[in-house]
């Protein structure tokens, strides 16, 4: 699969005379392949929006390389802009224009045929309210308009920064099926969101960012498997055999936690190995189930942002990869 | 090209543009109507009426002088001299004013002489449209910045300078079209006022040419005002930045400077005030006078010291203001991070 989007070593530094230097992006990498729905995850302030803004030429990076559809940006941005539809963090529109005027003006500026306007309005469910001024729209309706504006170009790469922000449950589900349909039609979608259940449902692959650096990436199931910790639940035909089994597995170097009626194993690469090992001892497994983890727990583990009772986690307290500090130390904050 | 057309369309759709334009045109209309009703044509009737009034006033003055002399002589005869200085020592010095000292033209109603007065009207027209241009220009790009519309547009057209300059071109196109159309109506309107409420005599080709040139300078001033408003609002990413800047300039830069300079006793304070240059630009030359200083003439008269400001001086100021504002707007447009 050719890459639609490649980012290497992207850096963006904000300097403030009073509070020093902030590395919003600190050598960030990303790869999105064609036809994928790619999830872009990270705690608040980790640099997602900064990445997307930089990619779209709205802000100037301090270093790194970005390639969209095979062309280096920002240099080739004028050439590729027509193929990249984007919304960046709840976009604002001129409040006194109607949705139709807003889209029609964008279509005019981008040389898109005007009949696309009604098509996308229909697609995002704003057909009947398109003649009203944007000022009177609800949050979700503005968000739908934003999605419509991104779809207007019929882009090859669609970048959506928190598109579900403010959508109702029905809207989120529509967004999900819309995204799937678009991907099925060959569009590549880059989706940033905090709704991890949603990401897990619709994304083929993900990139997780923390404090401006990538902490994990790859197909969703691989990321899940890599970070499930190789957890496996084992039951035997006879519960009385459990201590013997635990013994054998421990000797083979597997971390075992004994429960009354089953064993929990950790760090198992191949569950088949467990079954063979126990069979050699004349122990027969009745259940051998890899413990599934969800994206949420992987995310919390990877970024070290799980809530700790009695503590108030501050933004920027998350995993810093490659840095000297351990997770939880606010590296990369002001003054770093 | 598509961007240019789209920006023209956006300009026309903006309610602020429409309201400001309408307001400007209404003010122009009010001036035209006001001038129409405060002037009248001068015919034999008016001449005769004015002559009658002048004669009457002259008679009154003669009568008054005679009365005064009579009471002066009476006072002399009575020998009373309490009211010191009330009468001259010789009562014959109280004379009636000379014949013809009350002129009939003082009593003529005001009349609109196209040749003599239209230039002032061009200046008025320019002032009003320059103001409209400034606020419309500022709002056109300022609202775009503050609402996030500019960011949206840049996602479609990433060439920032092209986007900004195209917007400016669309703005100026609209403004020039408005100005030219309004100027045609303005000229026709005052020609009508001249014909109905005054005179349109002596309009030679040269006079028309001079009006045309003044009008052209007015157009330039309007365009410069709009461009500066546009540039300031883009620089500050908000309409209010341009309007605030202008108000700040007027309050601090003009009133403040005026007060400071007059306290310091500077000569030709007006030379430090912007409207002076706008006027110099429109009238080709204005002469400032300093009555504090006295230049004695051959005849022993006291002539004030003068300072001439010409349209060339003003053009330097306009060019510098234009280049500075637009240049700064373009440079920051290229560089800035758009959040
Ligand atoms: N203009 C700016 N000046 C200074 N710092 C900035 C600026 N813009 C962003 N940052 C900082 O850069 C970091 C990354 O911000 P960014 O908006 O990319 O986060 P995000 O991942 O989109 O977060 P969220 O999930 O809350 O949307 C933050 O620490 C933020 O404070
Ligand atoms: Mg964000």
Characterization of the model:
The complex is a heterodimer of chains A (336) and B (339). Chain A has 336 residues and is α/β, with parallel strands linked by helices. Chain A has 2 domains: 3-225, Rossmann fold (3-Layer(aba) Sandwich), CATH 3.40.50.300; 229-290, Alpha-Beta Plaits. Helix content of chain A is 31%, strand content 26%. Chain A has 11 helices and 14 strands. Chain A has a 6-stranded mixed beta sheet with strand order 6-7-8-3-9-10, with helices on both faces. Chain A starts with a strand and ends in a 33-residue tail after the last helix. Chain B has 339 residues and is mainly alpha-helical. Chain B folds into 2 domains: 3-40 and 112-335, no CATH class; 44-107. Chain B is 72% helix and 7% strand. In chain B, the strands form 2 sheets. A two-stranded parallel sheet of chain B has the order 1-2. In chain B, a hairpin with a 5-residue loop joins strand 3 (285-296) and strand 4. The longest helix of chain B has 38 residues, at 160-197. Chain B is elongated, with a radius of gyration of 29 Å. The two termini of chain B are 27 Å apart. The mean pLDDT of chain B is 88. Chains A and B meet through helix 3 of A and helix 1, helix 4 and helix 5 of B. The site of adenosine-5'-triphosphate (ATP) has 11 residues of chain A, from strand 2 and helix 1.
């Amino acid at each position: 699969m050719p890459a639609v989007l490649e980012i290497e070593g992207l850096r963006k530094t904000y300097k403030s005379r009073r509070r020093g230097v902030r590395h919003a992006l600190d050598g960030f990498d990303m790869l999105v392949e064609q036809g994928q729905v790619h999830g872009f995850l990270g705690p608040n302030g980790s640099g997602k929006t900064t990445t997307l803004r930089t990619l779209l030429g709205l802000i100037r990076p301090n270093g790194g390389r970005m390639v969209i559809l095979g062309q280096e940006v920002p240099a080739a941005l004028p050439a590729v802009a027509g193929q990249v539809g984007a919304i960046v963090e709840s976009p604002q529109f001129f409040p006194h224009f109607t949705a139709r005027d807003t889209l029609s003006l964008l279509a005019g500026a981008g040389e898109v045929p005007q009949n696309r306007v009604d098509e996308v309005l229909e697609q995002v469910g704003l057909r009947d309210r398109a003649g009203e001024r944007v000022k009177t729209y609800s949050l979700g309706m503005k968000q739908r308009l934003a999605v419509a504006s991104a779809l207007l170009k019929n882009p090859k790469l669609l970048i959506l920064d928190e598109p579900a922000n403010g959508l109702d449950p029905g809207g989120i589900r529509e967004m999900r099926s819309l995204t799937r349909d678009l991907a099925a039609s060959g569009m590549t979608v880059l989706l940033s969101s905090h709704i991890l259940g949603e990401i897990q449902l619709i994304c083929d692959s993900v990139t997780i960012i923390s404090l401006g650096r990538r902490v994990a990436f790859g197909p969703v199931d691989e990321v899940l498997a890599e970070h499930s910790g190789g957890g496996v639940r084992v039951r035997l035909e006879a519960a009385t055999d459990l201590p013997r089994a635990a013994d054998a597995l421990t000797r083979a170097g597997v971390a075992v936690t004994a429960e009354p009626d089953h064993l929990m194993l950790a760090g198992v690469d191949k569950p088949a190995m467990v079954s063979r090992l126990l069979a050699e001892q004349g122990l027969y497994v009745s259940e051998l189930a890899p413990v599934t983890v969800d994206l949420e727990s992987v995310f919390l583990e990877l970024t070290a942002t799980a809530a700790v009772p009695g503590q108030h986690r501050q933004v920027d307290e998350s995993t810093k990869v490659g840095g000297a500090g351990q997770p939880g130390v606010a590296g990369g904050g002001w003054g770093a | 090209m598509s961007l240019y057309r789209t920006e023209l369309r956006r300009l026309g759709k903006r309610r602020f543009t429409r309201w400001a334009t309408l307001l400007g045109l209404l003010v122009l209309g009010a001036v035209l109507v006001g001038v129409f009703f405060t002037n009248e044509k001068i015919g034999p009737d008016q001449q005769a009426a004015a002559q009658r009034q002048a004669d009457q006033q002259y008679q009154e003055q003669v009568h008054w002088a005679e009365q005064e002399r009579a009471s002066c002589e009476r006072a002399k005869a009575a020998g009373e001299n309490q009211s010191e200085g009330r009468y001259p020592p010789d009562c014959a010095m109280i004379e009636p004013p000379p014949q013809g000292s009350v002129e009939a033209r003082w009593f003529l109603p005001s009349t609109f002489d196209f040749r003599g007065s239209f230039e002032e009207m061009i200046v008025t027209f320019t002032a009003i449209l320059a103001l409209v241009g400034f606020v419309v220009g500022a709002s056109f790009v300022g609202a775009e910045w503050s609402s996030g519309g500019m960011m949206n547009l840049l996602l479609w057209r990433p060439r920032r300078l092209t986007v900004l300059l195209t917007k400016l071109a669309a703005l100026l196109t609209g403004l020039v079209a408005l100005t030219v159309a309004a100027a045609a109506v303005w000229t026709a309107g005052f020609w009508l006022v001249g014909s109905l409420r005054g005179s349109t005599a002596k309009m030679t080709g040269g006079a028309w040419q001079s009006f045309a040139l003044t009008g052209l300078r007015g157009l330039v001033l309007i365009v410069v005002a709009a461009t500066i408003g546009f540039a300031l609002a883009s620089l500050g990413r908000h309409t209010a930045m341009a309007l605030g800047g202008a108000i700040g300039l007027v309050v601090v830069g003009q009133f403040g400077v005026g007060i400071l300079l007059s306290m310091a006793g500077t000569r030709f304070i007006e030379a430090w005030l912007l409207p002076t240059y706008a006027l110099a630009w429109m009238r080709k030359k204005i002469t400032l006078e300093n009555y504090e200083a006295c230049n004695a003439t051959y005849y022993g008269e006291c002539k004030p010291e003068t300072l001439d400001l010409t349209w060339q001086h003003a053009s330097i100021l306009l060019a510098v203001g234009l280049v500075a504002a637009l240049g700064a707007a373009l440079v920051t447009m290229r560089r800035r991070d758009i959040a």
